[in-house]
Amino acid sequence: MSERFDCHYCRDNLHGKKYVQKEGRHCCIKCFEKFCANTCAECKKPIGADSKELHFKNRYWHENCFRCFKCSTSLVNEPFMLKEHNKVWCNKCTMDQAPHCKGCQKPIVAGDQNVEYKKTVWHKECFTCSQCKQVIGTASFFPKDDEIYCTSCHEQKFAKTCVKCKQAITCGGVAYQEQPYHSECFVCATCSKKLGGQRFTAVEDQFYCVDCYKSFVAKKCSGCKNPITGFGKGTNVVSHEGHSWHDYCFNCKKCSIPLANKPFVFHSEQVYCPTCAKKL
């Protein structure tokens, strides 16, 4: 008596019948479709032992179900792409649906390197400077109206030039009397302190912070001997024969009455009111 040769699942005798060997096990056709067959990704039915099976990335199809999701063209032996919702598309439909490059107007397909800006897309090699035509790719750029500029061309074409160093001002900057400066160029001529947003004095195209102006530039009051800065109290100055005074220091040497905007007598480098001058 011959040894039994049964289906692994239903135990029916397989002698003289069609069967399938799956992972070292023998099973009848009915059990194969019930327990072992892969499910078609398109029609969701089992792929029987008698059907030709196609597979890609752990997904399976009947040969007749392996068609373009959009146009239904058979993709057997044809190039295809697996897109959203795991649907297969032919190359033509993929190209028709692909976004188009703003530069060359050709479709951008999967795998193409691209650049996106404000809901517009370019091939990487098409994303070029409007002036020098060099590829910008993923480098920094500046949009201007409908044009795109690389950093260098934008500086040359649009950036203001610093009055001091003559280089382009690409970010921030300081304006004085409608003249542009880099913030690092607009500094005190003596101590190099940045003057943007600070009190300063301009003297013959040089700028000085308050402290340096007091110490090195400002004239000394002939009355109190302190610097005349033009800041705070005593912004008005009285000058006479090379001498300068705070207006509140311009007083009669003898009786101390204020003489600013009044008649006075200058004698031996001192200031006197007319009455006291007569008594000298």
From TrEMBL:
InterPro entries: Fhl1, LIM_FHL1/2/3/5_N, Znf_LIM
Domain (LIM zinc-binding) ranges: 38-98, 99-160, 219-280
UniProt keyword terms in alphabetical order: Acetylation, Cytoplasm, Developmental protein, Differentiation, Isopeptide bond, LIM domain, Metal-binding, Repeat, Ubl conjugation, Zinc, Zinc-finger
Protein's recorded name: Four and a half LIM domains protein 1
The organism of origin for this protein: Podarcis lilfordi
Gene Ontology cellular component list: cytoplasm
Biological function: May have an involvement in muscle development or hypertrophy. Isoform 2 binds to RBP-J and plays a negative regulatory role in the RBP-J-mediated transcription in mammalian systems.
Gene Ontology MF, one: transmembrane transporter binding
Places the protein is found: Cytoplasm
Any one GO biological process: cell differentiation
